[in-house]
Amino acid sequence: MRWETRELTGTDPGALLPLAGLVRSTQTPEFAGVTFHEVLCKSALNRVPAASSMPFSWTINPTRGCLHRCTYCFARRTHEYLDLDAGRDFDTQIIVKTNVVDVLRTELARPSWAREHVALGTNSDPYMRAEGRYRLMPGIITALAESGTPFSILTKGPLLKRDLPLLVEAARTVPVSVAVSLALLDPELQHRVEPGTPTPAARLDLIRSVADAGLECSVLAMPILPWLTDSEAQLDALYAALADAGAADVTTGALHLRPGAREWFLAWLGREYPELVPQYRRLYGRGSYATADYRSWLGERSGRARRRHGFDKRPSRRWAHRPEATMPPPEAAEPAQPALF
At residue 118, what are phi and psi to the nearest 5 degrees? Predict the structure, then answer.
């Protein structure tokens, strides 16, 4: 059964899941094993809690769950709020807010909207493959730009190239920031640890395309995986490739193991690299973060690679900050890991 062309106007009383606003659940051969739950959302803009260290105040998440299947994904636990699990359900039960553009336009038109910076790509990737079917991002970009709202996009998806003309046009009227997530170059390891993501080569090509279009493209080289992607040679090769692709800035950070992601990642590590499990348990203990000594060591090592490849001579390009926010240099920071990871 292929995608149906159907106007979504109401909720389905016989829906498979008790999701607010659920219109239908659908599957298609193009996405084997995945169910898309199409919902009518009541809001598009999400306020970031004031206590958060994120450098933005608002987010938009057109979807929940993610087809990238990253074993370490920070956002996995958010699926539990929907009575779904943080593991396989996060990878295969995808919530799509089909009316998000219309709702967003209504919210942006309110007199109270202060045109604060909005971030996309904080819970799931707005350019995962399903965006090719739902095409939500062109409307979102246009609505933000027409309302005078600055925004940023974080993605692993080369599908963003489709919307480069829209982004270039938007950047003429509002600040636009594009960031690509790429923390490893080994395609075999990439396929193991984040099996649904585009290849490193495809993401390097995306960085080049963004830069060639005249937009600055930052890179979030996160997460760096202890004993898997943190060697001097690996970090040097990563920074060299990013510099060659035209990245404007790079932010490096160690793996976080928050609840939800922790259980899923450690189970994966036990299958793929069982000899590393005791070392990870010592490094992370019962917490979410690697030890301060490791983070400092990684900061120094990535800082050397950063300087070798000229990123220290480039102005830092980050998402718009709240006025009171202050951030240490990228290689020394304890980054607040974006939810995409």
Answer: -120, 135
The crossing angle, in degrees rounded to 10, of helices 200-212 and 232-245 is 40
Do 190 and 123 share a structural domain?
A: no
* DSSP secondary structure string for all residues of 131-153: HHHH--HHHHHHHHHHTT--EEE
Q: Check whether the bond before 165 is cis (ω within 30° of 0).
A: no
Sole residue written with tokens 């359900």: 89
Residue 188 located in a structural domain: yes
E strand or H helix at 97: strand 93-97
DSSP code per residue over 212-274? HTT--EEEEEEEEPTTTT-SHHHHHHHHHHHHHHT-SEEEEEEPP--TTHHHHHHHHHHHH-G
pLDDT above 50: residue 295: yes
Q: pTM value?
A: 0.87
Burial class (CB in 10 A: 0-12, 13-18, 19+), 144: buried
What percent of the chain stands above pLDDT 90?
Answer: 77
Measure the CA–CA gap between 150 and 177, rounded to whole angstroms. 8
Is residue 97 within 8 A of residue 104, CB to CB? The reply is no
Q: What is the mean pLDDT of residues 59-71?
A: 95
Regarding whether 186 and 125 lie in a shared domain, the answer is no
Do 85 and 33 fall into the same domain?
yes
Q: Is residue 10 part of a domain?
A: no
Q: Domain of 98?
A: 16-145
Evaluate if residue 333 carries a pLDDT over 60: no
**Distances in Å between the alpha carbon of 113 and those of 36, 52, 144, 335?**
31, 20, 12, 29
Our count of domains for the chain comes to 2
Task: Pull the structure tokens for residue 326.
Answer: 């202050």
**d(C-alpha 202, C-alpha 236), whole Å:** 19
